[in-house]
């Protein structure tokens, strides 16, 4: 099999693998721990000011002329991009399928591979800030953002494992904290900063 066939096969398997009922509850638990953990770090480091930054989509919905339901649906888009598309590539295609759904039984080589994939995935954010998304460069290069991304992506990797290799589980764990930050706590404003204000080399 050539590399394209291997990647396509991995993607298909990850998309067609669905967690069992028990595994689904494990994914929910991992997502809750990941989200609360990332939230605590975000608040503790000052990356998020929970009172000042809180701006739920319902406010935009009421302020729209005429009133619109579209802002209320916007958080759902976080589960498609970046969550599902990124997880399909990084966990579903690049990372080898997990050999077991038991975290304590994972072999060292797979754990090393998963760690490398996670580090490279996190590192693509500053690269994106210098290339395809210069408006978000300041945020993408913020050590606090990179730390939070590491927490979220580690959680997504754990969900990927405990679900038996389901990219949907990884996308769920990835999507919940992203939607909360981006659409409820001012994340979008950070990502849409005027690139002219940034000190781009």
Automatic annotation (TrEMBL):
InterPro entries: Rce1/LyrA-like_dom. Signal peptide: none annotated. The keyword Hydrolase applies. Keywords: Hydrolase, Membrane, Protease, Transmembrane, Transmembrane helix. The chain crosses the membrane at residues 23-48, 110-133, 145-171. Residues 72-176 form the CAAX prenyl protease 2/Lysostaphin resistance protein A-like domain. Pfam families: Rce1-like. It comes from the Eukaryota. GO terms for biological process: CAAX-box protein maturation; proteolysis. One of its GO terms (molecular function) is endopeptidase activity. The keyword Nucleotide-binding does not apply. This is CAAX protease self-immunity-domain containing protein.
């Amino acid at each position: 099999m050539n590399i394209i066939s291997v990647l396509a096969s991995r993607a298909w398997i990850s998309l067609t693998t669905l967690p069992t009922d028990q595994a689904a509850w494990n994914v929910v638990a991992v997502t809750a721990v990941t989200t609360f953990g990332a939230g605590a770090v975000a608040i503790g480091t000052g990356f998020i000011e929970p009172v000042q930054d809180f701006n739920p989509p319902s406010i935009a919905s009421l302020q729209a002329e005429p009133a619109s339901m579209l802002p209320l649906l916007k958080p759902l888009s976080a589960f498609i991009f970046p969550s599902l598309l990124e997880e399909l590539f990084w966990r579903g295609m690049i990372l080898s399928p997990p050999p077991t759904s038991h975290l304590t039984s994972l072999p060292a080589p797979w754990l090393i591979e998963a760690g490398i994939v996670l580090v490279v995935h996190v590192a693509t954010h500053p690269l994106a800030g210098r290339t395809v998304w210069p408006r978000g460069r300041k945020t993408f290069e913020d050590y606090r953002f990179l730390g939070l991304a590491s927490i979220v992506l580690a959680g997504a990797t754990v969900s990927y494992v405990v679900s038996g290799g389901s990219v949907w589980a990884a996308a769920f764990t990835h999507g919940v904290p992203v939607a909360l930050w981006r659409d409820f706590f001012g994340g979008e404003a950070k990502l849409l900063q005027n690139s002219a204000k940034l000190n781009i080399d």
